[in-house]
Amino acid sequence: MKRLARVILAVSLIFAAQTAVLSADSQSQTQATSTAAKSWIEIPAGTTVPLALTNPVWANTAKAGDGVYAETAFPVAVDNQMAIPVGTYVQGQIDTLTRPGLFSPHAQVQIHFTKLIFANGYTVELGGPGIVNAGQPPSSQANGTPSAPVAASDDVIAAVATPYVLVSPRSDVILDNGSQLEMVLQVPLKLNAAEVAGAVRQSNPAPLAQLKSASRCRPIPGSPGTPDTVIPGTPGTPGTPPTVIPGGPGMPDTVIPGTPGTPGTPDTVLPGSPASPWVPCPGPPVITTNPKPQNYRETFQLDAPVEIVGKPLPAGRYEVTWKGSGPVAQVDILQGGRTIVGVRARVVLLSRQSPASTPGTRANSDGSLSLQSLRFAGQNVALCFDLPPA
Prior knowledge:
Blueprint: H1 2-38, E1 40-43, E2 48-53, E3 57-58, E4 67-72, E5 76-78, E6 81-84, E7 89-98, E8 106-117, E9 123-125, E10 131-132, E11 150-151, E12 159-161, E13 164-166, E14 173-175, E15 180-185, E16 189-192, H2 193-202, E17 229-231, E18 243-245, E19 254-256, E20 268-270, E21 286-288, E22 295-302, E23 306-308, E24 311-313, E25 316-323, E26 328-335, E27 338-349, E28 358-363, E29 369-375, E30 381-384
């Protein structure tokens, strides 16, 4: 009986030891997962990053392909953690440029951004369309530098700005030093948390007020003009009167005619120069919202039923309408001219026109499909339905 008790005690001790080892392993794995999650900061798609230009965009010489240089004007934080501090350098490139004209005193610029450079030298390549150098989990990174980019759809521009600028056709700059615009992250951006923390410690941004205008325009003062110049004429001569010699008795007087007077010459007037008006410089460029945004109306086909914001959409042909190029717009989905559902969506700019109208779907746990995105034939914009309910 004693032997049986000793066997039971030994088995119990072995089981307790194994349980402790399993518990320790589980806790270690949980801590490792938590540490890995904290090693990276993910900025969600749709985030806007305020920028201030550090180099101007010149009115006469700027063209597609020119570089754009800016710095962040306001910090970006994710879950109470600093992600992009103020003063981070941003590099980009002009895609399209519409200059102001006589009857359209505004400019429209599209810029895609290619690189972030933090204060400590940490560099994030935004790369080409749809690609952000977001990195892999730390286990595959030996030095904290991402070994491979994370790609969204290959035609989605990773980070973009489309400023609408009120500017005079006489202005020599379209976007001046210090002009503030918003960079929109169209795909998620993943950053190394340790590198960002180091950049935060070293950040020492210069006040934006120190950015002086690059305009070379100087006001031209007016002139009062010059008065007329008067050259006096010559005076005339009075001439001489007739000479009368009295005649003798019974004889007439003898009259000797005098000499006639000569006229003088009139004054000569040389006109002076007219006064010139004061010529001011045009006002500085002002970035604002487009007062007349484009109205979009597109069609798409659903070959299978889907749902969007809890609303079922049976298979069939639909229309979709929205206004403006985003980054967020109110979208109406219609069928037979009747609005089926209204929803907020991200308006995403693409690097090329879509060859066909294509709905993007996601499978739910119950096997149903949710509408995630819409692309439209011949358009370089798409809609993404990944925003939380308003």
